Amino acid sequence: MLDQISSRLELDNAEVGHSDMATGARVEVFCAATPERVRSLWEAIDRSSPGDIQALAHAIRSSADAIHAHHLSDLLQDLEVLGMRGEIWRAERLMPEVHHEYRRVMACLAD
Protein backbone atom coordinates (compact mmCIF):
# COMPACT_ATOMS: atom_id res chain seq x y z
CA MET A 1 0.00 0.00 0.00
CA LEU A 2 2.76 2.48 0.88
CA ASP A 3 4.41 1.75 -2.48
CA GLN A 4 1.24 2.93 -4.23
CA ILE A 5 0.97 6.04 -2.09
CA SER A 6 4.66 6.81 -2.54
CA SER A 7 4.51 6.56 -6.30
CA ARG A 8 1.33 8.64 -6.53
CA LEU A 9 2.81 11.30 -4.29
CA GLU A 10 6.20 11.06 -5.99
CA LEU A 11 7.88 10.03 -2.78
CA ASP A 12 11.20 8.36 -2.13
CA ASN A 13 10.67 4.60 -2.45
CA ALA A 14 13.84 4.01 -0.44
CA GLU A 15 11.84 5.02 2.61
CA VAL A 16 9.22 2.37 1.99
CA GLY A 17 9.70 -0.58 4.29
CA HIS A 18 6.81 -0.68 6.70
CA SER A 19 4.17 -3.36 6.74
CA ASP A 20 0.93 -2.79 4.87
CA MET A 21 -1.02 -3.11 8.13
CA ALA A 22 0.97 -0.35 9.82
CA THR A 23 0.77 1.78 6.70
CA GLY A 24 -2.98 1.33 6.50
CA ALA A 25 -3.31 2.43 10.10
CA ARG A 26 -1.22 5.57 9.48
CA VAL A 27 -3.29 6.43 6.42
CA GLU A 28 -6.50 5.92 8.39
CA VAL A 29 -5.27 8.21 11.16
CA PHE A 30 -4.19 10.84 8.63
CA CYS A 31 -7.54 10.73 6.79
CA ALA A 32 -9.55 10.78 10.02
CA ALA A 33 -7.72 13.48 11.95
CA THR A 34 -6.30 15.82 9.35
CA PRO A 35 -9.47 17.44 7.92
CA GLU A 36 -10.44 18.86 11.33
CA ARG A 37 -6.87 19.91 12.03
CA VAL A 38 -6.67 21.77 8.73
CA ARG A 39 -9.96 23.57 9.51
CA SER A 40 -8.57 24.46 12.93
CA LEU A 41 -5.38 25.72 11.33
CA TRP A 42 -7.36 28.08 9.09
CA GLU A 43 -9.24 29.29 12.18
CA ALA A 44 -5.98 29.82 14.10
CA ILE A 45 -4.73 31.99 11.26
CA ASP A 46 -8.02 33.94 11.21
CA ARG A 47 -7.68 34.47 14.98
CA SER A 48 -4.01 35.46 14.63
CA SER A 49 -3.02 32.78 17.14
CA PRO A 50 0.67 31.96 16.57
CA GLY A 51 0.82 29.27 19.27
CA ASP A 52 -2.12 27.42 17.74
CA ILE A 53 -0.63 27.77 14.25
CA GLN A 54 2.62 26.28 15.47
CA ALA A 55 0.97 23.41 17.36
CA LEU A 56 -1.48 22.49 14.60
CA ALA A 57 1.14 22.69 11.85
CA HIS A 58 3.36 20.43 13.94
CA ALA A 59 0.60 17.88 14.49
CA ILE A 60 -0.36 17.76 10.81
CA ARG A 61 3.31 17.61 9.79
CA SER A 62 3.83 14.55 12.00
CA SER A 63 0.92 12.80 10.30
CA ALA A 64 2.19 13.80 6.85
CA ASP A 65 5.64 12.45 7.72
CA ALA A 66 4.08 9.15 8.81
CA ILE A 67 2.64 8.60 5.33
CA HIS A 68 5.72 10.00 3.54
CA ALA A 69 3.94 13.08 2.15
CA HIS A 70 7.19 15.03 2.10
CA HIS A 71 6.13 18.15 0.23
CA LEU A 72 3.18 18.65 2.56
CA SER A 73 5.45 18.02 5.53
CA ASP A 74 7.96 20.62 4.30
CA LEU A 75 5.24 23.24 3.85
CA LEU A 76 3.90 22.53 7.32
CA GLN A 77 7.36 22.83 8.80
CA ASP A 78 7.59 26.30 7.26
CA LEU A 79 4.17 27.14 8.69
CA GLU A 80 5.22 25.84 12.09
CA VAL A 81 8.27 28.12 12.08
CA LEU A 82 6.13 31.09 11.04
CA GLY A 83 3.84 30.38 13.99
CA MET A 84 6.85 30.16 16.28
CA ARG A 85 8.04 33.55 15.01
CA GLY A 86 4.58 35.10 15.22
CA GLU A 87 4.62 35.93 11.50
CA ILE A 88 0.89 35.60 10.98
CA TRP A 89 0.79 37.49 7.68
CA ARG A 90 3.33 35.07 6.17
CA ALA A 91 1.43 32.09 7.54
CA GLU A 92 -1.71 33.48 5.96
CA ARG A 93 0.06 33.77 2.60
CA LEU A 94 1.46 30.22 2.82
CA MET A 95 -1.78 28.55 3.90
CA PRO A 96 -3.38 28.31 0.42
CA GLU A 97 -0.35 26.36 -0.82
CA VAL A 98 -0.50 24.11 2.25
CA HIS A 99 -4.21 23.52 1.68
CA HIS A 100 -3.69 22.75 -2.01
CA GLU A 101 -1.01 20.16 -1.20
CA TYR A 102 -3.18 18.69 1.56
CA ARG A 103 -6.03 18.25 -0.93
CA ARG A 104 -3.65 16.64 -3.42
CA VAL A 105 -2.49 14.14 -0.79
CA MET A 106 -6.08 13.35 0.21
CA ALA A 107 -7.02 12.80 -3.44
CA CYS A 108 -4.11 10.39 -3.88
CA LEU A 109 -5.13 8.48 -0.78
CA ALA A 110 -8.72 8.24 -2.00
CA ASP A 111 -7.68 6.51 -5.24
Helix percent band: over 70%
- Determine the mean pLDDT: 86
Number of domains: 1
> What oligomeric arrangement do these chains adopt?
single chain
Structural classification? mainly alpha
Main sheet?
A: none
Distance between the termini: 11 Å
Highest-level CATH class = Mainly Alpha
What's the gist of this structure?
By secondary structure, this protein is mainly alpha-helical. The protein is about 80% helix and about 0% strand. Helix 4 (about 70-85) packs antiparallel against helix 5.
Topology:
Layout: H1 2-8, H2 20-46, H3 50-66, H4 70-85, H5 88-110
Labels describing this entry:
single chain; 111 residues; mainly alpha; Four Helix Bundle (Hemerythrin (Met), subunit A); 0% strand
Please describe what this structure looks like:
This protein has helices at 2-8, 20-46, 50-66, 70-85, 88-110. The protein has a single domain, classed as Four Helix Bundle (Hemerythrin (Met), subunit A) (Up-down Bundle). The termini are close together. The chain is mainly alpha-helical and 111 residues long. Helix 2 (20-46) runs antiparallel to helix 3, helix 2 (20-46) packs antiparallel against helix 5 (88-110) and helix 4 (70-85) packs antiparallel against helix 5.
